[in-house]
Amino acid sequence: MATPEPAIPRRPSRRRNLVLIALVVALALFVLALRWVGQPSRVAGLILSQAGNALGLEITAAGASEYRLRGTPMLLLRDVVARQPGAPTPLLRAERIQLELPWATIRAAGDDLTVRRIELDAPQLDLAALQRWQATRPPSKTRIPTLTEGMRLQRGRVIGDGWSVDALDIDLPALYPDRALSAHLRGRFISGTLAAPFDLDAALTRFAVNAGLGLSGDVGVESPPWSLPMRLTLSGRVRDGDDGMGVDVIRLGAVARYRNGETELPFVFGLAGPLRLHSGEVTMTPLGFALRGRDAMPSFHARGGFAFGDALALRLDGMIADWPKAWPALPEPLESSVSALPFKYEYRGRADLSDTSALQLQRDETHFDGHFRLPEVLTWIDTIDQGTPLPPLAGHLSTPKLDIAGGTLEGVEVDFAPSPGEAMTP
User: Fold this and answer.
1) d(C-alpha 408, C-alpha 34), whole Å
2) Residue ranges of the domains in the chain?
3) Residue 95's closest CA among 61, 125, 58?
């Protein structure tokens, strides 16, 4: 009987080796991926890189980042800076940005812009840098996101040309593109020595051009030693066109109070006109303005224009209803006249109105053409009971006749000059 030959071991096939190698490589890659995903800075860097490429910006987050995938995905970024490539000034900085996106939005890959909530801490927006970036972007249709749980912005700052809005807080409960929305805004406008704190409730019929806008709340104007707190309401229609962004059909009414030391003068005023923001300048032309005062505050109505950019420019052409009773009496026949006083006013200078203003004033055949500085006039009003009866004006007065101290002067021409030390230039 023949002895059987011993079995020769079979070598593993090449296919089996390749499968084994692939499994080992896949396992190694999976472990590396878990380690990479476990580092939020890497995830944040990838997301910011993709966002920057889409927007034409360099976006970085130098602080510690966090993210969450369970429940509603969340990404938190710290020390965020966004700038145009090569630009010296970032258009946006923020201490913290938190974004919560539903899974449905992530899976939609841009087709769905639903966001649960956005939070921003200490964002700082540079308008000039923003406008330079916008000028490089191709025209596209603006898509408004849905914010189901709204947005909160704290300690924000907007930087303009010679002005800023500081300590800006915005609370937006929710935003749906085709629904009415409301928000609360609080902050402080600053330009030189002038400050304007505000605390306002805002409402829009929808987040779109031609939507109705409403504002109400407290606004102040402060330029020590005087202040002007007021309670206002505003309505209008949002506009965005070739002449800039703004509000049409503005109607603003306010109850105000001028305060300086022990002096307190209440008044109400209203204005109307189209507001525009274009190339860093805010304008309101034509402007309708009316003020109703009492005591030392005159009542008048006027038309004109307003512009604020590198300087404040204001022009009014109107009618003072009557000479205020608290002001020193005019000589006859001006005092007995019941005629209104047409006037023209022009100003260009610092936002606190401390530079020279030009004034033309008329009553019947009497004309005054001169200039003044508002701080000196306000000081005169504050001390009107114990000070000089003549306001601190410089200019020329002409009148056919004046009755003074029992005598009559005809063909009067008077030049007024500021007191010594008040070098006033027109």
Assistant:
1) 101
2) 36-159, 279-426
3) 61
